[in-house]
Amino acid sequence: MKFSIISDAFQQMEATTKRLELTDILVKLIQEIPEDVIAKAIYLIQGKLRPNFEGVELGIAEKLVMRAMSKSSGIPLKKIEDDYNKGGDLGQTAENILQQKIQTTFASEVITLEKVYDTLFKISKLEGKGSQEMKMKYVSSMLNDATPQESKFILKILLGTLRLGIAENTVMDALAIAFTGKKENREIIENAYNVSSDLGKVAEVISTRGVEEIEKFQIKLFSPIRPMLADRIKSGEETVEKFQEKFAAEYKLDGERAQIHKQKDKIEIFSRSLEIITSYYPDIVEKISKLIISEDVILEAEVVAMNSNSGDFLPFQELMHRRRKYEIEEAVTKYPITVNFFDVLFSEGKNCMDMRYEERRELLEKIIKQDDFARLIPMSIIESKEQVLEVLENSINSGCEGLMLKHLDSTYRAGIRGSNWLKLKREYQNELGDSLDLVVVGAFFGKGRRTGKYGTLLLSTYNDEEDVFPSICKVGTGFTDESLDQLYQILSPKVTLKKNPRIVSEMEADVWFEPELVIEIVASEITQSPIHKTALDKIKEGTGLALRFPKFTGKIRTEKNSEDASTDEEVIALYKVQKKTENQE
Ligand code: ATP
């Protein structure tokens, strides 16, 4: 398939801001893609080469791309750099620059989608000595054959800056319309995606074997399942009202969610955002097989750091010591963990997701041989608000964040945030009633002890309808000297020359970042704001929502992508609850 078909569609998508139009263009594009390349095309549309959990990264430097452009066009590097510095988008620079080349050279070979994909894939595999030269060779060979417009999009994919505003939901809508004629059939596609976490594969199966096959999509060991998520709740009373009968109360531990896949002695661990994290936990790999009485299983657990002397749970940040490539053995001894199981999704060749909560818990109790390292999360079956308060108290006293309240009949609904699981945190009971996970998009330099560091951060929510990051507040409290240092180290490599177009803010930050890092914030109130852009026009025309007295909780949410941050809708919902409470008072 000619790459120009895809790049023409990308061009149209770039020009529109309306989600419906975007879906239409995508539907037409999908209908033109032959079945043997549809998986590759779907990954490219999302700006990647493989599903996230395979961890295939392109990792290429802008400088190298500019050299490749110069090589294939004969235009001096300096001129390319000047154009780039003016515009700040290397893809666009390529289009401008190569326009000049086209008049001087003969028409070259037509570039295909397969060629682009395969070359990008080869680039992703290159490492070590001589790899930079090889990367440059591959990039310039693609640029030799590509038109200026094609070059623009190839480079955007290569540099990870393809921002067409296509979220996974839009791709699923478009697949449903293209293959079944109806957007309503997206649910079938979503179910398949929820158990495979691989949209390319879903598209390939639907295209080659039809919708019926998608309905039969099975869980597969070592392909992560999208996690089931919980709704927030403010009180035990609300839980009793919602469930109307007995329910399970589990401690909500403050650690890292781990989806553990095991087949005989082979173990793989996936994070909440479905990346492979096995290498951070060699102790789990070493010990867990002996503690699980099942040949092949998929289990969910919360991994928590603990104090080896007292046995107490330690806060989530302590796990960050495990995020090392080297000296991991040392971290394993210095920062011990426990693995606290709370669900079983697959066992002995059988999908357990359709089993009721109680049955899954019973099975889990049979499968896990508990010891100091592996445990089951404490659970009790209760029915009154007084009991909720009592268990909540106990959980907080043991260093937990609160409770997870689960409906006894609930099946495991992959990828869904629903009311069968409710979370009740301690801080829900005061002020704003909840913490928010916000994206760090910019910063202002500090003064006094904070000189040379980022003293204040500019934060955004995620607007999933438009795939952008509108600002919600600045935060300058809650930081320790240590956390300021740590944030500086994480954030300084993310500084961009220009504000990323997905950041929506009127503020003039001292520096802008790629919107990638998520941190946890508490605040006293949500207020209407003429400056901030979260929920703009949703409550009142020309006005957004902002946080009053925001404070950093100390938690850097490395396990969350920026698209997992709190959304505009969540902030609106909290704002409405706050208004209702104010009116009652
Ligand atoms: P949060 O910010 O509250 O962690 P989240 O968006 O990561 O939210 P939620 O579904 O809202 O995910 O909250 C559930 C999270 O709590 C899980 O992702 C898991 O990491 C953690 N957790 C701790 N204890 C439990 C438990 N007993 N059952 C399920 N999840 C638990």
From TrEMBL:
InterPro entries: ATP-dep_DNA_ligase, DNA_ligae_ATP-dep_bac/arc, DNA_ligase_ATP-dep, DNA_ligase_ATP-dep_C, DNA_ligase_ATP-dep_cent, DNA_ligase_ATP-dep_CS, DNA_ligase_ATP-dep_N, DNA_ligase_N_sf. Keywords: ATP-binding, Cell cycle, Cell division, DNA damage, DNA recombination, DNA repair, DNA replication, Ligase, Magnesium, Metal-binding, Nucleotide-binding. CDD domains: Adenylation_DNA_ligase_Arch_LigB, OBF_DNA_ligase_I. GO terms for molecular function: ATP binding; DNA binding; DNA ligase (ATP) activity; metal ion binding. Residues 330-463 form the ATP-dependent DNA ligase family profile domain. ATP binds at E250, R257, R272, E302, F342, R417, K423. SUPFAM superfamilies: ATP-dependent DNA ligase DNA-binding domain, DNA ligase/mRNA capping enzyme, catalytic domain, Nucleic acid-binding proteins. Pfam families: DNA_ligase_A_C (PF04679), DNA_ligase_A_M (PF01068), DNA_ligase_A_N (PF04675). It catalyses: ATP + (deoxyribonucleotide)n-3'-hydroxyl + 5'-phospho-(deoxyribonucleotide)m = (deoxyribonucleotide)n+m + AMP + diphosphate. GO terms for biological process: cell division; DNA biosynthetic process; DNA recombination; DNA repair; lagging strand elongation. Its cofactor is Mg(2+). Its EC number is 6.5.1.1. The active site is at K252. It is an enzyme of class 6 (ligase). DNA ligase that seals nicks in double-stranded DNA during DNA replication, DNA recombination and DNA repair. Belongs to the ATP-dependent DNA ligase family. NCBIfam families: dnl1 (TIGR00574). This is DNA ligase. It comes from Candidatus Nitrosopelagicus brevis. The gene is lig.
